[in-house]
């Protein structure tokens, strides 16, 4: 008896919040306001290293993982090529724009090179998606991984466009209105603005017909067809939108490092995006950003930590791997799943203290 | 242009649903053999038959979930044999599933809203429905019609079985259905819920015809005007409900066969 009752108590608060989802849940959430304020005044708190190496990098990786979250969390398709699409956009910025490799770069101004890169990367990702939607489950993963691996080896071996294994270096970053937009503080705000835009766009679209149909496709594609939906068209459209988001992150990434080389689009890096999304949680758009923060913090500080306890610092991936194992073992919906369960376990206790706990049912 | 001409000719064609020589093979197994059925617009018909008689395969061929191996299917005169399911649905065909095929991660309201959206424009819209969205209102009305207004904001995964069956019917009634295929809508329902189901079916507008697969004769024979009896993938007998019920061969095969 008590077991059934407990599950009901756990379920109710989530249900009660549902109507708020139709609007903007963040508006009623003080924690969201605090996070937004901290992110906005971050340049006052953090030095250049933290601002770029930790927070800007987190937001860029988080946006790449957000594109995977859109595909996996809403449409039920796990794509391992999101980093490849971002890397493709990064290469295109370097190829069409200005770089130290004058024999390759066409020297277009950034405001021409960036839209070109976004358009080409979106087309690239959409075509890959059109291939991938013909398959289900593990075969989707295999096709997208094959596209990622093929792109990695292609960039390694192609010298005419991708400059082989050395990649393209000293990529120019935008300067206008007298501002160097790659200087730490302006660049942080650009990254924050793009990440916020993508985050809110995904959040908004999840309740619009486009996002709802994807969730329908995830839950039951056959029924979606029996309701009048062309399921594959919706899947390809999801790839198109996710590709655009990944491409935006790719443009920011090439501006961040000012170079792009095959090492940035390796198969390992493709899998990192999956790890980030899964560790953070793919049920909500905030998950990828949380996953990215954990990943970047581990990548940056695990080295010092491991040296301190007498291990080889290069083993930071061991920590990431162990963390990944722990997450998939204990919480299949990532850190946000852990957080939600913790909140729910706190809630009945709080209600009991207030004496109004049973009022819900 | 061709389809416009076909649709014009459909006006005179008369039949809502016309199957000619439909056969469906699964490997060497013939699930349907040479099935020919004509159903008038607004006609309400039961399809009876024991398990494996090919009833659900018949539905899958009509909706295109599995296309027929041979034969033709016309829907209001238009040859839809090679249409994908969504094209048939957009022309006014609807179906329900024997095992509820819902969207468990979404709320009741969103399930019905998706059904309304599927047969209208704006399926890819990036704009959230506003307060006065016509489809939202249509979804609200449907939710009320199947008595689910009290749970409309609950995720479908939390609904009781009977409520899921009611939602299953709501999804099939979205938009402007012209013909509905009900696949055992009463499966697993309590006697009270069966009564509600009969009320929902009998209160459908007269122009909406349907075919219902139903083992419960109390339900089936109260909501239909004609009966098709299937056996081993073939049409075995067609007639009025009372004819079929009193037919000795049918009783031998099905009614008296110890089937519950």
UniProtKB/TrEMBL annotation, chain A:
Superkingdom, natural source: Bacteria
Keyword Repeat set for record: no
Topology of this chain in the membrane: Multi-pass membrane protein
Main location: membrane
Gene Ontology CC terms: plasma membrane
Annotated keywords: Cell membrane, Membrane, Transmembrane, Transmembrane helix
Keyword check for Cell membrane: yes
Subcellular location: Cell membrane
Residue stretches spanning the membrane: 31-56, 68-96, 108-131, 138-155, 187-205, 236-257, 263-282, 289-307, 319-339
Xref: InterPro entries: ABC_transp_permease, LivM-like
Pfam families linked to this entry: BPD_transp_2
Protein name per the record: Branched-chain amino acid ABC transporter permease
Organism of derivation: Bradyrhizobium hipponense
UniProt lineage: Bacteria, Pseudomonadati, Pseudomonadota, Alphaproteobacteria, Hyphomicrobiales
Automatic annotation (TrEMBL), chain B:
Domain of life per record: Bacteria
Biological process terms in GO annotation: D-alanine transmembrane transport; L-alanine transport; L-isoleucine import across plasma membrane; L-valine import across plasma membrane
Residue ranges of every copy of the ABC transporter domain listed in the record: 17-257
Protein's UniProt keywords contain ATP-binding: yes
GO annotation, cellular component aspect: plasma membrane
Keywords, comma-separated and alphabetical: ATP-binding, Nucleotide-binding, Transport
A Pfam family hit: ABC_tran
Alphabetized GO MF terms: ATP binding; ATP hydrolysis activity; L-isoleucine transmembrane transporter activity; L-phenylalanine transmembrane transporter activity; L-valine transmembrane transporter activity
Record's function text: Involved in beta-(1-->2)glucan export. Transmembrane domains (TMD) form a pore in the inner membrane and the ATP-binding domain (NBD) is responsible for energy generation.
Protein name in the entry: ABC transporter ATP-binding protein
């Amino acid at each position: 008896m008590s077991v059934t009752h407990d599950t009901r108590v756990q379920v109710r608060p989530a249900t009660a919040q549902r109507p708020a989802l139709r609007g903007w849940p963040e508006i009623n959430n003080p924690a969201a306001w605090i996070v937004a304020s901290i992110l906005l005044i971050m340049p006052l708190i953090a030095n250049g290293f933290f601002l770029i190496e930790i927070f800007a990098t987190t937001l860029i990786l988080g946006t790449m993982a957000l594109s995977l979250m859109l595909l996996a969390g809403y449409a039920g398709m796990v794509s391992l090529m999101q980093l490849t699409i971002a890397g493709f956009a990064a290469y295109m910025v370097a190829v069409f724009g200005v770089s130290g490799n004058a024999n390759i770069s066409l020297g277009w101004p950034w405001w021409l090179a960036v839209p070109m890169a976004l358009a080409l990367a979106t087309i690239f990702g959409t075509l890959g998606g059109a291939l991938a939607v013909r398959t289900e489950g593990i075969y989707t993963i295999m096709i997208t991984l094959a596209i990622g691996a093929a792109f990695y080896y292609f960039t390694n071996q192609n010298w005419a466009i991708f400059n082989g294994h050395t990649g393209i270096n000293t990529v120019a970053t935008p300067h206008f209105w007298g501002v160097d937009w790659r200087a730490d503080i302006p660049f942080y705000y650009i990254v924050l603005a793009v990440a916020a835009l993508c985050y809110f766009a995904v959040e908004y679209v999840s309740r619009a017909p486009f996002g709802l149909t994807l969730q329908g496709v995830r839950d039951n594609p056959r029924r979606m067809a029996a309701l009048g939906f062309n399921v594959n068209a919706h899947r390809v459209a999801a790839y198109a939108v996710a590709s655009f988001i990944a491409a935006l992150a790719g443009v920011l990434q090439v501006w961040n490092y000012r170079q792009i080389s095959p090492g940035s689009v390796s198969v390992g890096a493709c899998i990192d995006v999956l790890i980030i999304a899964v560790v953070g949680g793919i049920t909500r758009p905030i998950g990828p950003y949380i996953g990215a923060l954990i990943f970047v913090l581990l990548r940056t500080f695990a080295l010092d930590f491991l040296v301190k306890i007498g291990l080889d610092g290069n083993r930071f991936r061991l920590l990431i791997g162990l963390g990944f194992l722990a997450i998939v073992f204990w919480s299949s919906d990532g850190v946000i799943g852990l957080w939600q369960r913790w909140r729910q376990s706190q809630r009945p206790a709080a209600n009991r203290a207030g004496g109004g706990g049973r009022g819900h049912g | 242009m061709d389809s416009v001409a076909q649709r014009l000719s459909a006006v005179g064609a008369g039949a809502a649903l016309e199957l000619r020589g439909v056969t469906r093979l699964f490997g060497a197994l013939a699930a349907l053999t040479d099935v020919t059925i004509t159903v008038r617009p607004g006609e309400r018909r039961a399809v009876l038959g024991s398990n494996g008689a090919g009833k659900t395969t018949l539905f899958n061929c009509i909706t295109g979930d599995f296309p027929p191996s041979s034969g033709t299917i016309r829907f209001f005169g238009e040859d839809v044999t090679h249409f994908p399911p969504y094209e048939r649905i957009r022309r006014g065909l609807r179906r329900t599933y024997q095992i509820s095929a819902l969207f468990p991660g979404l709320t009741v309201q969103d399930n019905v809203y998706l059904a309304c959206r599927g047969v209208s424009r704006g399926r890819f819209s990036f704009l959230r429905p506003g307060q006065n969205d016509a489809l939202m209102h249509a979804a609200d009305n449907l939710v009320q019609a199947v008595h689910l207004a009290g749970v409309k904001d609950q995720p479908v995964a939390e609904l009781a079985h009977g409520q899921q069956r009611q939602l299953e019917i709501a999804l099939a009634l979205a938009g402007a259905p012209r013909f509905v295929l009900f696949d055992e809508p009463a499966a697993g329902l309590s006697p009270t819920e069966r009564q509600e189901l009969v009320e929902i079916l009998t209160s459908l507008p007269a122009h909406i015809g349907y075919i219902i697969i139903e083992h419960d004769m109390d339900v089936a024979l109260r909501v239909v005007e004609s009966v098709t009896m299937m056996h081993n993938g073939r049409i075995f007998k067609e007639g009025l409900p009372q004819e079929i019920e009193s037919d000795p061969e049918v009783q031998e095969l099905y009614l008296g066969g110890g089937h519950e």
